[in-house]
Amino acid sequence: MGKRYNWMCAGIAGSGSILYGYDAAVIAGTFAQQGFLEYFKPSATILGAIGSVYFAGLIVGLFFVSALADRFGRKRTIQIGAYIGLVGAIFQTAATKIGLFFAGRVLAGMASGIMLTTVNVYQAEIAPPHLRGTMVAFQIVTLNVAGTLASWVGYACNFSHNLAFSWRFPIAVQCLPAIGLIIGCFFIPFSPRWLISKDRHAEAQAVLRRLHDDHHDPTFWEKEYIQISAQLAAEREEKEHSSWTHIVTNPKELRRVAIAVAVLTCVQTNGAQTIQIYQAVLYAGLGFSTRQTLLMAGVFGICNTCGGTTNLILIDRVGRRKLFLVGLIALSVWLGVFAACSAEYGKTGLKSWGKAGVGFVMVFIYFFGSTFAASPYAYAAEVLPTKIRANGMAIGLFFANSVTLIFSQTAPIALDHIGWKFNIVFIACNMFFLPIVYFFFPETKGLTLEEVNHAFGEKVEVELTDITEAEVAKVAVVHVEETLS
């Protein structure tokens, strides 16, 4: 059952990304809908606030992740996030005042903060080493598919003569993945690492057996159980003295958290997130109509999804580190070309420059998807030890989304005042992170989460290759006895 069951669990948990991906993308189409603009009559500042308040909510959600994920488990935390997301979607859909719409965006952001952290942690903890990157990448592909769906739903609804329907219906659609996730979580197991951390060993063994029953190595799940138990026992001794302050003051933990912060932040500073949110403004600035803008947003989503699929194929073959390095260089090049096309359009007003600019945006987002769609989230979860994985992901996403909050709020104003020159900021950020990745990011491809310690020069309590047949047999006997009792 192993691989099939593992993929089913990863797929259900990964549907949390459908909620996040759809909600993050639907607002771009909403900003282009005449019905929305006429109903609320938002200024550039209000548009910026609508875009940024979502990320403010996301940051708030991050503060709850650690306590929820460690106390109630990863899967229950995902369910809680889905409930919050459902309420946020209802608020946005039913909003008659801008204040209620803002409240819905905040709740949607909170749900996304919980999802983005916990889904990645859960998938990293249930996946076998050789498929971990691919499974996390699959989650991001579903996120991109959801974003693409949001764009095309927005485009289709633009043909409606009912102006209220044209913007309310696309927002209402996000209720469906929230409901599906709430139900789906009843059919997936708790993380085996979380179960072991709570001394629920019989359950953990049963889950590991179902997830990682490998026909090539029938004893793999027993060996993995022994390794995880030994590593968590060692971490538990340290965690008695661990706290949020300890993470910052302990050099080993601080190094890992700093890498998680860096890799998650460079996703938000490379320009892709800001371009996705404010596509309507960018395309309008290149001379395109509202309907053309919505159509191009749909194409943008397809390119992003194709890139994410490429990332899914490459991540466990090429490795994380190489993808980051290639991505930072390629994204800087395409941003530079897009900026040049935008500058020429501003000087000449020629449609050909506007079309070329849009074309390079599509190339840019494909390269973003193929190198950065999933890799940073998989990598951040991998480099953090189990005892601080939820906390570390929350810290990393806090910094990353704080940066996004700033960009989201300032982007409409910056595009109004400096136009294409705003791209230089993203190019500079990419060049800043390039040497950091090259000198400080170790490769984690193919390692168990416990073996990642080797990449940091730290001790692995038990090596899989050192586990004897007698130890494996003992685990098997205990598992049978506890199952029968």
Automatic annotation (TrEMBL):
Compartment(s) of residence: Membrane
InterPro entries: MFS_dom, MFS_sugar_transport-like, MFS_Sugar_Transporters, MFS_trans_sf, Sugar/inositol_transpt, Sugar_transporter_CS
UniProt topology in membrane: Multi-pass membrane protein
Pfam families linked to this entry: Sugar_tr
Any one Gene Ontology cellular component term annotated for this protein: membrane
Domain Major facilitator superfamily (MFS) profile: 9-445
Single annotated GO MF: carbohydrate:proton symporter activity
Protein name per UniProt: General substrate transporter
Lineage of source species: Eukaryota, Fungi, Dikarya, Ascomycota, Pezizomycotina
